[in-house]
Each structure stands twice: as C-alpha cells, then as structure tokens.
Amino acid sequence: MIGKEGNFIVIKFTEGEIIQNLKSLAKEKGISSAIILNGIGMLENAVIGYFNGEKYIEKRIEEPAELVSLQGNIGKDNGGFIIHTHASLACKDHMLIGGHLLKGNVKVVNEIVLYVLDKIKIKRIRKGNLMEMQL
C-alpha cells in the first residue's frame, strides 16, 4: 500500500525483505534520491552492523523484533540503488539494539515515510571501505 502527498510517500509493507522492498519501490516510482524520515513495525532475521572504520561487525537478530525507529536515505551508485539506513530494534526483553540495518524480513508490517528529493541527488562513490555520499 502506497500513499503520496506532494513529495511525501507513505508505504506499508506486509512481506518481503525491507532493503529490497525499498529498492523495488525506488525503481518502480522513479525515485533517485529520498530521505527515510521514519519507519516502524516489526522485523525478523534482521542483521544490524557496526562499522569499526574498516568493516561491518554484524549481529543477527533472529527473533521477531519491534522496529522502533528507522532513518536514512536512498541514493544511487553506478550499479543501482543504495539504501543507507540506521535502525533501533526492541526484542521481547524490551532491550534496544541498533546500528546500520543491513537486512531484515518484514514481520506483520513495516510502515515507512519517505521524502523524495527533487533537486538534490544523492550519489554514493566507493572510497576504500566506505560508500561515501556525494551531492
């Protein structure tokens, strides 16, 4: 389910993998740059990363976890879309874990709000181990 008002897009995903869902949406709607303003819902089999300056240290959260907060942006590199998101997840013990969201399967629902950029174009260029943002 997708709603649009001006440059705001509100999305409801009920299945799939969250990063792939956002890439598919961007392709389908012709979005080259956007800000992920907000995201809530639930994920399972999520992978959160912590970048230590050289690589991502990954933590898998297999149990269903509440997607408490999701922010980031959508941009492009030479090969396609880059979804750069950070998330906070709450597990059943109510403890939060967060970091760079590398992947996660929709559990129940994901509700996400985007703001599509008209003039600013977010591009990512590889610099060493980083995909650096260019405007």
Give your account of this protein's structure.
The structure is a single chain. The chain is mostly beta strands and 135 residues long. It has one domain: 60s Ribosomal Protein L30, Chain: A (2-Layer Sandwich). It has one helix at residues 18-29; strands at residues 2-5, 8-13, 34-51, 56-61, 65-77, 80-90, 96-116, 123-127, 130-134. Strands 1, 2, 3, 4, 5, 6 and 7 form a seven-stranded antiparallel beta sheet that branches. Strand 8 (123-127) and strand 9 form a beta hairpin. 21% of the residues are buried. The model has no long low-confidence stretch (mean pLDDT 94).
Biggest sheet architecture: 7 strands, antiparallel
**CATH H-tier superfamily:** Hypothetical protein, similar to alpha- acetolactate decarboxylase, domain 2
Oligomeric state of the chains? single chain
Task: Supply the number of structural domains.
Answer: 1
Between the first and last Cα atoms, what is the distance in angstroms? 30 Å
Structural class: mainly beta
List how many beta strands DSSP finds: 9
Q: Give the name of the CATH architecture.
A: 2-Layer Sandwich
CATH topology (level 3) name: 60s Ribosomal Protein L30, Chain: A
| Cα gyration radius (Å) | 15 Å
Strand content is over 45%
